Amino acid sequence: MEVNLPAGSGSTYKNMTIELQNLQNGQKQRYVVSDRVTYTFNGLLKNCTYNVYLKTPADVVLGQIEKIEIKEENQSVTFSSLLTLLDVNLKVQTPDGTDVTDQVQVTWLDDKQAYLSQGSSLKAQTAGTKLSYRIVLNQDLGMQYATPENQAYSVKEEGNQLVYTLTPIEKLTVSGLVKNTNGDALPGAVISISQKLNGKYSKSFIAQTDTQGKFGLEVFNDESTISVSATDYISQTLTKANFNAGTDLGTVELKAISGTTINLSLTYTPSVATGEEARTENWYSDYANIAYTIYNETQEKEITNFSVQYPSIVLLEEVAAGDRLRITVSSKNEAFRSVTATATVDENAEKANVLLNIIALGGINASYTDTDNTDIVGILYDSKGELLKKYAYSNQCLSISNLSDGEYTWSVWSTALSLILF
Asked: Which of 21, 258, 266, 269 could form a disulfide with 284 if both were Cys (CB 3.0 to 4.6 A apart)?
């Protein structure tokens, strides 16, 4: 049987399916439509009746020809009436109208939340089809705008040009007063507010108190860790899920400290691709997300009572001259492996100096060349072949960070590449 698509349809129905069904035994044969308009089914049973359908990848029937009888002669049939295929296009913009579609990842889902496609355009849909789409912001946008909720949509006969306008994360000014336990204002105290925007991206804001110990700092209304510190005083840390209950932190009292000081020197080496040279920096900018453990090897006991006054740590427990201290730093957000170094308390039991070399965890940058199929998904496996996570490409690229050293397998469709991170 020869099955023909409408003349002049060209690649309109590319990747659709022509399905031939034997009505007597239920047997089915299929072709995936390419650029051709004619498809021939061979080996059909005589004296049987067939239906032929044109379907979308989502199994929506665009057209059908029923009750075709196969006798002695071959049959030739043509679809005369097919549902119109419609494209749905999405534009994502900021409140001022700036188009940022190329900075987001759009995923299309059907009405049962099953994956359909990725990209700003969804092709070959029919009127009345119920869809939803999910927008994922890149880091730059994610640090300014709220993560969009999933949006539902029903395809129309025309006008399927959607526009989604991002909503800025609310900004506000946090204020307060810093004093010592005697009630004296502390000018020059440092207020550092580290925020987790959209539960994903870290951003820090820093201010100092004025001559009256007052401060004001514009931040986002989101999850925050607030650190208040001053030279020779014990720092205080506050946490807030948001500032809906108020932006005035009131009075923060700092207690004077005394004790042996560990002077920290941190270096940082970022992760780079194989063959590239990493440049070591003499600082680590995300020091607010470092956790410390200190062990006195000489006295064989852990030191738990100390105050971090970056770039120093003041010990609030007694140590002796010559004591050997083991200091370990680890990342609160899993950006690097733990690093350990030792320091020796000086002869006056006043200070110790330590150098800690931080090395970032590895990552994978992946991309693919042009293909007719835009639904590309990457899958990461560990060295044992166990699935770690599935990733979606954005504009033919994706980046994975914070991977521990080791061997991984990265698969794209049916092609797998073995990658080793160092």
From this structure: 266
